[in-house]
């Protein structure tokens, strides 16, 4: 008993150490940015981890200009719309892939995998030209459309894995209970796939929110420029001023929606939602 | 309430597997029909075709006289209870049971009263607001039944609804299913593997083998007059013993000795043009310890002597197992039965004979025993096609 106890204490200590190393490794750059965002212009480069002088000036500055507010609205709007559309389309496609046997199913899966593997950089120039021709350049749809394209394979893959887990018989039961295929899907299958839907929504949202490549290439003004792209255009109040402080503050601010998004949906990702459906 | 007719209904799956072949069954309004057969014989497929969950390849399904082949499940007004219960885990018991009514756009007050009424019948009232995952197996099973009965459908379909319950609960639920069906008088098709369920629940039993209906009849009729070797071996537990035998001028040479056939059996066999080589079948319950028989009675039957290999005392009765010298009868039918039951459960197809004796028998393992049986109970089968040569139905 005593030996067993010693072993577990030793194990626990080792795990704790490993955990701490991983967390520190992951968080130091983030904390550094947070620290920078609270420093005054004079102490920016002093190398101190904890600011000697705290200031909210950087935050006040970014919220005082359209340079940040407009992109923030663009980011939110574009990411949320793209996420919604990708998840709804992804649900339908994933359901079909998980449940139905239709001609061309393998091809569909293959093509969506291909899209996911396609290097985005190689598509930027053609997309740029196409969007200019179609008048989509520098508009919300101009970003929403490519985001959906690249998010769909991800959505389809994650969701079909979740759909496969839902007992087939539940759907048969719904049909016997008088449901149309649509009702069976929306009233029985979709609620059970909810954890998968929210997981997918988080992943897709993060992908859209963080994208820089398309955002910088397919926008030219604040009409549709998102925050990651806008950050690179940040300048200080004058040409010679260092924008590091404001960039850091903006970086901290755009992390917040993601954290909120994840925390909000995490509650809904209740594991084992399907337990109790069959057998026992 | 409905009358369901299957007219040469056939199911061929897209991969070519023939699951049900030309099934003809007429199910009367309010009747309780049982589908039995070994695993993979097409029971679930047949049920799913009636439900509308599987397409019918050919033939016609008529519900109340109207062709129903093309009707969607929701338009057939049939409720189904699944082996796995298939309860909706994200809904409470109440919501589960109310689901069919809600889909039918029944008003709230009616839904409430119907659900509560069903809960009352099934003794679920105190569980209405719980989730299925928090219920015991038996309770879940009752919720599944509740969901089926709330909307008073034309018919119930049940696919091995009790097979996930333990033996005792299964016994209790069997009685309640039977009572419920009688009370509601709803046409029911019930699939089972269980001998007791098949014998006790149904008005009629349909025995399936490889997608083909072998025989349809009341449980007692199938037990007394099996149409062929397969039905004889499938109905009854422990199953019938089969031995190869030779017919010679009215007597039967078998591993159990030379048996003089009764006039009744002989006439039936002659009428059926019995071949010389036959398979003789005798149920375990038609044997008795000869020592317990009155002398006069004993004379009316045959006796053989053999060494008891294994003796199982069940309290109310004893099962004695004997090994006979000769190879026991084997035919395709018997092999399939053995495979389905896992040979050990069908000793009649191994090299042992099972007999059921009175509890007062003094049989001992390893000791010889005189065993009596009534030759009039012998059934003879044609080894080439399994047909019952002594069929008198
Ligand atoms: N979707 C399918 N595709 C192809 N063949 C199938 C399919 N479903 C069932 N089968 C085949 O049809 C036959 C009948 O299957 P079915 O499920 O009806 O058997 P069952 O009598 O219900 O068996 P069990 O007692 O094991 O449930 C089997 O041989 C099976 O392999
Ligand atoms: Mg089955």
Structural class by sheet pairing and helices of chain B: alpha+beta
How is the biggest beta sheet of chain A arranged?
none
So, CATH architecture of the largest domain in chain B? 3-Layer(aba) Sandwich
N-to-C span of chain B: 30 Å
Integer count of domains of chain B: 2
Helical residue percent band of chain A: over 70%
Q: Quaternary status of these chains? A: heterodimer
Distance between the termini of chain A: 35 Å
CATH class of chain A: Mainly Alpha
Overall mean pLDDT score of chain A?
Answer: 85
Write out the CATH superfamily name of chain A: MetI-like
Poorly predicted runs of chain A: 270-276
Tell me the radius of gyration of chain B.
Answer: 24 Å
Which residues of chain B form runs of ≥5 with pLDDT under 50? 343-350
Radius of gyration of chain A: 24 Å
Shape type of chain A: globular
Instruction: Report the largest inter-chain contact.
Output: A-B, 26 and 33 residues
CATH topology name of chain A:
MetI-like fold
Strand content of chain A: under 5%
State the helix count of chain A: 11
Protein name (chain A): Sugar ABC transporter permease
Pfam family, one (chain A): BPD_transp_1
Family (chain A): Belongs to the binding-protein-dependent transport system permease family.
Organism (chain A): Prauserella flavalba
Task: Characterise this structure.
The complex is a heterodimer of chains A (about 280) and B (about 400). Chain A has about 280 residues and is mainly α. Chain A has helices at about 1-35, 55-65, 65-100, 105-115, 120-135, 140-165, 170-175, 180-210, 215, 225-230, 245-265. The longest helix of chain A has about 35 residues, at about 1-35. By secondary structure, chain B is of the alpha+beta class. Chain B folds into 2 domains: about 5-230, P-loop containing nucleotide triphosphate hydrolases (Rossmann fold, 3-Layer(aba) Sandwich), CATH 3.40.50; about 240-380, Nucleic acid-binding proteins (OB fold (Dihydrolipoamide Acetyltransferase, E2P)). Helices cover about 30% and strands about 30% of the residues of chain B. In chain B, strands 6-7-8-3-9-10 form a 6-stranded mixed beta sheet, sandwiched between helices. A 5-stranded antiparallel beta sheet of chain B has the order 13-12-11-14-20. Classes of the chains: A mainly alpha (about 280), B alpha+beta (about 400). The complex binds adenosine-5'-triphosphate (ATP) and magnesium ion. Adenosine-5'-triphosphate binds next to α1 of chain B. Chain B: It comes from Prauserella flavalba. Chain B: GO terms for molecular function: ABC-type transporter activity; ATP binding; ATP hydrolysis activity.
């Amino acid at each position: 008993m005593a030996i067993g106890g010693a072993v577990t204490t030793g194990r626990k200590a080792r795990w704790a150490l490993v955990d701490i190393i991983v967390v520190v490794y992951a968080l130091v750059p983030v904390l550094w940015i947070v620290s920078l965002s609270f420093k005054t212009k004079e102490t920016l480069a002093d190398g101190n981890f904890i600011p000697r002088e705290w200031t909210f000036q950087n935050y006040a500055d970014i919220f005082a200009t359209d340079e940040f507010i407009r992109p923030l609205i663009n980011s939110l709007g574009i990411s949320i719309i793209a996420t919604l559309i990708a998840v709804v389309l992804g649900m339908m496609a994933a359901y079909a892939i998980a449940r139905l046997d239709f001609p061309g199913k393998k091809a569909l899966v293959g093509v969506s995998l291909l899209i996911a593997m396609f290097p985005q950089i190689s598509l930027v120039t053609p997309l740029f030209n196409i969007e200019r021709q179609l008048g989509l350049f520098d508009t919300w749809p101009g970003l929403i459309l490519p985001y959906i394209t690249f998010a769909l394979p991800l959505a389809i893959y994650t969701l079909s894995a979740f759909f496969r887990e839902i007992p087939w018989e539940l759907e048969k039961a719904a049909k016997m209970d008088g449901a149309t295929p649509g009702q069976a899907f929306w009233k029985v299958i979709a609620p059970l796939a909810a954890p998968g839907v929210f997981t997918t929504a988080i992943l897709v949202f993060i992908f859209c929110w963080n994208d820089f490549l398309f955002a910088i290439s397919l926008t030219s003004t604040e009409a549709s420029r998102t925050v990651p792209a806008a950050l690179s255009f940040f300048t200080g109040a004058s040409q010679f001023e260092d924008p590091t402080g404001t960039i850091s503050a903006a970086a901290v601010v755009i992390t917040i929606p993601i954290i909120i998004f994840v925390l909000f949906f995490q509650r809904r990702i209740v594991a084992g939602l399907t337990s109790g459906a069959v057998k026992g | 309430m409905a009358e369901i007719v299957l007219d040469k209904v056939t199911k061929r799956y897209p991969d070519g597997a023939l699951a049900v072949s030309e099934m003809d069954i007429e199910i009367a309004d309010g009747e309780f029909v049982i589908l039995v057969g070994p695993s993979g014989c097409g029971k679930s497929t047949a049920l799913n075709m009636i439900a509308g969950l599987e397409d019918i390849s050919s033939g016609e399904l008529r519900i109340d006289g109207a062709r129903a082949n093309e009707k969607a499940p929701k338009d057939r007004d049939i409720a189904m209870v699944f082996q796995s219960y298939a309860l909706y885990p994200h809904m409470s018991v109440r919501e589960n049971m109310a689901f069919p009514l809600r889909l039918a756009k029944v008003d709230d007050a009616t839904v409430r009263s119907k659900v509560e009424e069903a809960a009352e019948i099934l003794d679920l009232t105190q569980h209405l607001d719980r989730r299925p995952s928090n219920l015991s197996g038996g309770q879940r099973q009752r919720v599944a039944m509740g969901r089926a009965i709330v909307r008073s459908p034309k018919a119930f379909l049940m696919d091995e609804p009790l097979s996930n319950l333990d033996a005792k609960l299964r016994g209790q639920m069997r009685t309640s299913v039977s009572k419920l069906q009688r009370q509601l008088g709803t046409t029911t098709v019930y699939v089972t593997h269980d001998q007791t369920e098949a014998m006790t629940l149904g008005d009629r039993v349909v025995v399936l083998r490889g997608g083909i209906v072998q025989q349809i009849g009341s449980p007692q009729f199938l037990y007394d007059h099996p149409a062929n070797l397969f039905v004889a071996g499938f109905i009854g537990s422990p199953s019938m013993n089969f031995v190869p035998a030779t017919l010679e001028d009215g007597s039967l040479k078998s591993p159990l000795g030379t048996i003089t056939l009764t006039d009744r059996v002989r006439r039936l066999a002659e009428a059926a043009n019995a071949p010389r080589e036959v398979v003789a079948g005798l149920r375990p319950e038609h044997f008795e310890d000869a020592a317990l028989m009155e002398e006069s009675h004993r004379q009316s039957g045959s006796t053989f002597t053999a060494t008891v290999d294994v003796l199982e005392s069940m309290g109310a009765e004893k099962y004695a197992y004997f090994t006979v010298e000769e190879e026991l009868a084997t035919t395709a039918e018997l092999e399939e039965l053995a495979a389905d039951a896992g040979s050990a459960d069908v000793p009649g197809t191994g090299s042992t004979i099972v007999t059921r004796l009175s509890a007062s028998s003094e049989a001992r393992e390893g000791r010889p025993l005189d065993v009596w049986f009534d030759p009039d109970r012998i059934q003879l089968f044609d080894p080439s096609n399994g047909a019952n040569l002594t069929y008198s139905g």
